[in-house]
């Protein structure tokens, strides 16, 4: 049985719902052009959907239960395009927390995701209401990797399927890889220059690099970010690099370099500023601020969507992640209070870790919770972003005025 779309010029026909990929690929091309065109299926005005949604949300909570959502679809399904109805039903079936938010509903009604789902239906790759993505067989190695990443990071089956359909490795997850390669390159350079790989911080020339944050050189603004490329030793670099790659690369594959870069950079800046405010005489090195922002945001997202997250051994892996974070943080605390090799300059501070965690649990969680949603439309994002901006502004004023007002005794310049 064939379906007709009211917007197809000249009555062009869509391929049958159960057509094979070969049939769809050998079609005249007319259908694919329609899917990619800007002439999308007619959608009722948002006000109409809002009034319908409000009927099933008398408490004005912004959410309706999946049961009420199905009732809404059954009552008004005849007004919807069949493809869109399948997507909405899949959303109701696959929602792990038992409720649907208004933003999800409007996004789907405004064709935010329908083209990808319609393409999957046309090519016969899967029925939206069919088996789960995990049950699919015959996938290549790259497809298996994408599926694995989807289950690692996304809590809803409808999002996992959409991501699996749309991800193309173009662009690849370049940001975290580039930062990691740069960190390793800088570490090896100073390893040969200082003639040591373990506890490089014990070298008298370690802080003479233009990269670490040093309280006497806090006017050099680039140091608030560039300190991530210096590490106290190979043990410091190894732990940070492992967490950065294992967590950061999958997150970048799903959420993109811009969003993950935002969380990472905010964690890095918050880390150095937190040290300049609370541990005023200590230098800072290492990428822990950015790494802890990403890891804490991911772990918080997993906990908040525990029933929906289908990654394997998630309890064990979460425990291992917390152990790694604790070991690395414990090492940093021990090093900070260990007698420095060259007093009066203390060893690097551990407070940057806490600054990264604070960013991850606020901005980071909002970013990871809003997959494929516009951050600028999320009020919670702007609340946390404004709080972060106020913190940065206050920290800048603190660095300009507080050191002199408090007559802080700083170590000599390196």
Care to describe what's here?
The structure is a single chain. The N and C termini lie far apart (78 Å). Helix 8 (141-153) runs parallel beside helix 12 (234-278) and helix 12 (234-278) crosses helix 15 (351-369). The protein has 2 domains: 46-127, Orthogonal Bundle (Recoverin, domain 1), CATH 1.10.238.10; 174-406, Rhomboid-like fold (Up-down Bundle). Strands 1-2 form a two-stranded antiparallel ribbon. It is mainly alpha-helical and 414 residues long. The radius of gyration is 26 Å and the shape is elongated. It has 16 helices and 2 strands. Its EC number is 3.4.21.105. This is rhomboid protease. Keywords: Calcium, Membrane, Metal-binding, Transmembrane, Transmembrane helix.
What attributes does this structure have?
414 residues, mainly alpha, Recoverin, domain 1, Rhomboid-like fold, two-stranded antiparallel sheet, 16 helices, calcium, EF_Hand_1_Ca_BS
Count of helical segments? 16
How far from one another are the termini?
A: 78 Å
Radius of gyration: 26 Å
Topology, number of strands = 2
Please, what is the average pLDDT? 79
The helix content is 55-70%
Instruction: Give the CATH class of the largest domain.
Output: Mainly Alpha
Order of helices and strands: HHHEHHEHHHHHHHHHHH
- Please indicate the count of domains: 2
> What global shape is seen?
elongated
Given as residue ranges, the uncertain stretches (5+ residues, pLDDT < 50) are 1-44, 113-129
Give the strand order of the largest sheet, numbering strands 1, 2, ... along the chain: 1-2
User: How much of the residues is beta strand, in percent?
Assistant: under 5%
Classify the secondary structure makeup into a structural class: mainly alpha
- CATH fold-level name of the largest domain: Rhomboid-like fold
Query: CATH homologous superfamily of the largest domain?
Result: Rhomboid-like
Major β-sheet, in short? 2 strands, antiparallel
The CATH architecture assignment of the largest domain turns out to be Up-down Bundle
EC number: 3.4.21.105
Region (Disordered): 1-29
Keywords: Calcium, Membrane, Metal-binding, Transmembrane, Transmembrane helix
Subcellular location: Membrane
């Amino acid at each position: 049985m064939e379906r007709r779309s009211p917007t197809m010029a000249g009555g062009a026909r869509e391929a049958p719902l159960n057509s094979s990929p070969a049939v769809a690929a050998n079609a005249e091309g007319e259908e694919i052009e329609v899917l990619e065109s800007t002439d999308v299926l007619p959608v009722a005005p948002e006000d109409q959907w809002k009034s319908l949604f409000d009927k099933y949300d008398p408490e004005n909570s912004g959410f309706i239960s999946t049961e009420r959502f199905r009732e809404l679809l059954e009552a008004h399904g005849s007004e919807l395009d069949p493809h869109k109805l399948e997507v909405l039903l899949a959303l109701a079936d696959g929602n792990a927390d038992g409720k649907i938010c208004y933003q999800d509903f409007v996004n789907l009604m405004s064709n935010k995701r329908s083209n990808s789902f319609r393409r999957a239906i046309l090519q016969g790759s899967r029925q939206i209401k069919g088996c789960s993505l995990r049950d699919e067989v015959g996938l290549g190695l790259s497809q298996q990797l994408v599926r694995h990443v989807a289950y690692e990071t996304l809590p809803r089956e409808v999002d996992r399927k959409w991501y699996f359909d749309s991800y193309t490795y173009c662009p690849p997850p370049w940001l975290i890889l580039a930062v990691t390669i740069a960190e390793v390159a800088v570490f090896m350079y100073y390893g040969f220059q200082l003639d040591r790989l373990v506890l490089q911080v014990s070298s008298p020339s370690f802080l003479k690099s233009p990269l670490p944050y040093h309280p006497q050189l806090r006017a050099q603004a680039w140091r608030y970010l560039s300190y991530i490329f210096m590490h106290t030793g190979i043990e410091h670099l190894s732990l940070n690099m492992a967490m950065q790659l294992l967590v950061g690369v999958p997150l970048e594959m799903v959420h993109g370099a811009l969003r993950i870069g935002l969380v990472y950079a905010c964690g890095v800046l918050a880390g150095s500023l937190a040290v300049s405010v609370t541990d005023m005489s200590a230098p800072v090195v290492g990428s822990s601020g950015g790494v802890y922002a990403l890891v804490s945001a991911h772990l918080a997202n997993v906990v908040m969507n525990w029933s929906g997250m289908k990654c394997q051994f998630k309890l064990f892996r979460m425990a291992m992640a917390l152990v790694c974070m604790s070991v690395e943080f414990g090492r940093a605390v021990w090093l900070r209070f260990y007698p420095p090799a060259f007093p009066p300059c203390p060893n690097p501070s551990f407070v940057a870790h806490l600054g990264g965690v604070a960013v991850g649990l606020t901005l980071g969680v909002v970013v990871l919770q809003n997959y494929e949603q516009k951050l600028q439309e999320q009020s919670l994002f702007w609340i946390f972003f404004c709080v972060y901006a106020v913190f940065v502004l206050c920290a800048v004023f603190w660095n300009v005025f507080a050191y002199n007002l408090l007559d802080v005794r700083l170590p000599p310049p390196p």
